[in-house]
Amino acid sequence: MSISAIIAAAGSGERFGAGIPKALIQLADRTLVQHAVSSLAPVVDQIIITAPAGFEAQISELVGEGIIVVTGGATRSASVRNALAVATGEYVLVHDAARALASTDVASRVIAQLKNGAVAVVPAIDVVDTIKVVSKEGFVVSTPDRASLVSIQTPQGFNTSALREAHASQNEATDDAGLIEANGGAVKVIAGEERALKITTPADLNTALSFLSLGSDIRTGIGTDAHAFGVGLPLWLAGLHWPGEEGVEGHSDGDVAAHAICDALFSATQLGDLGSNFGTDRPEYAGASGVRLMQETYSMVTKAGFAISNVAVQIIGNRPKIAQRRAEAIAAISDALGGAKISVSATTTDGMGLTGQGKGIAAIATALVYKQ
Ligand code: CTP
Ligand code: MG
């Protein structure tokens, strides 16, 4: 029994006011539409996204192959109809990209009800405010009993042919269940979740962030390394070979920037340090390059359940001059660390100390990681 998912993402995000479609707004490590895809992908067989006209290619590139992108319509209902036309599932979930953080769990509970025979299923949460019906003139008309009121969320689930029928006979509603109701169909209500809030204004982004683990378990770490120049050695620094520059003595290829970065990552994740992980009692790492050590560190950090927010490294020494190869160094380090955000800076020390006297090179690194 196959399941399609429609992600409504064709709105312009007027109230958010970012000047770009709301679905393309960044929340932590990805855009709202990418969050929505990630939570539905594990439980559906087909995903169709409605894109604002002109943004089809951009959204398609963001979400990758295998996901259908159609152009949205003038209203949400019109957008959903465009997607419904290509849905192949027996059941269909209709979800708002704006509810980016709705979980896979709520989607599976909706699907479970559909498999149980429900024609339409909606997640809901209790309302906390007293709700009043107000006239155009600005006077209260009535106060419905709050106990019978709920706030409706998405993903909403439907028997696909029932939703097609409802869309064919009714034109507009602010949600799809509304069309089923107007057709006299029964809509089953299940428990929704706070994290499925609809991101409408910039303030909602902060609330959404607090639901990501990113908001709760962030850790920082520091690492330092220094080596003296040695005659006739090649220089390896920040994952790069520096032809014509004198190299440094030291463990492996003597890449002080790479070693400081590994130490910063071990420090942030409480996994020990360079010595305890790659030291003399681990002969398999003898002579390993800085790049290889960063790759190994990245794999250990990932296995321990951490993601890297960013890594910054500062190289201290009179030479080499880092600026002209900064972009290359950033790319080399980022490649070794799974595409992490990297910055590389450099400084001299006004003629003082080992590095200032031109006797060697040092590096200091910091890493910010978060538990996933
Ligand atoms: N949507 C859509 N097609 C439209 C209008 C809205 O697919 N013609 C989608 C939005 O992208 C959003 C969801 O429906 O994911 C709910 O709409 P809303 O939160 O109102 O988003 P926007 O319409 O983008 O925001 P605004 O009303 O502030 O412009
Ligand atoms: Mg809207």
UniProtKB/TrEMBL annotation:
GO molecular function, one term: 2-C-methyl-D-erythritol 4-phosphate cytidylyltransferase activity
Sorted UniProt keywords: Isoprene biosynthesis, Lyase, Metal-binding, Multifunctional enzyme, Nucleotidyltransferase, Transferase
InterPro entries found in the cross-reference section: IspD, IspD/F, IspD/TarI, ISPD_synthase_CS, MECDP_synthase, MECDP_synthase_CS, MECDP_synthase_sf, Nucleotide-diphossugar_trans
Keyword hit for Metal-binding: yes
Domain 2-C-methyl-D-erythritol 2,4-cyclodiphosphate synthase: 218-369
Pathway(s) it belongs to: Isoprenoid biosynthesis; isopentenyl diphosphate biosynthesis via DXP pathway; isopentenyl diphosphate from 1-deoxy-D-xylulose 5-phosphate: step 2/6; Isoprenoid biosynthesis; isopentenyl diphosphate biosynthesis via DXP pathway; isopentenyl diphosphate from 1-deoxy-D-xylulose 5-phosphate: step 4/6
GO biological process, one term: terpenoid biosynthetic process
SUPFAM superfamilies, A to Z: IpsF-like, Nucleotide-diphospho-sugar transferases
Annotated signal peptide: none
Catalytic activity reported: 4-CDP-2-C-methyl-D-erythritol 2-phosphate = 2-C-methyl-D-erythritol 2,4-cyclic diphosphate + CMP
UniProt keyword Protein biosynthesis present: no
Known cofactor(s): a divalent metal cation
Family named by the database record: Belongs to the IspD/TarI cytidylyltransferase family. IspD subfamily.
NCBIfam families in UniProt: ispD, ispF
Protein name (database record): Unannotated protein
Organism of provenance: freshwater metagenome
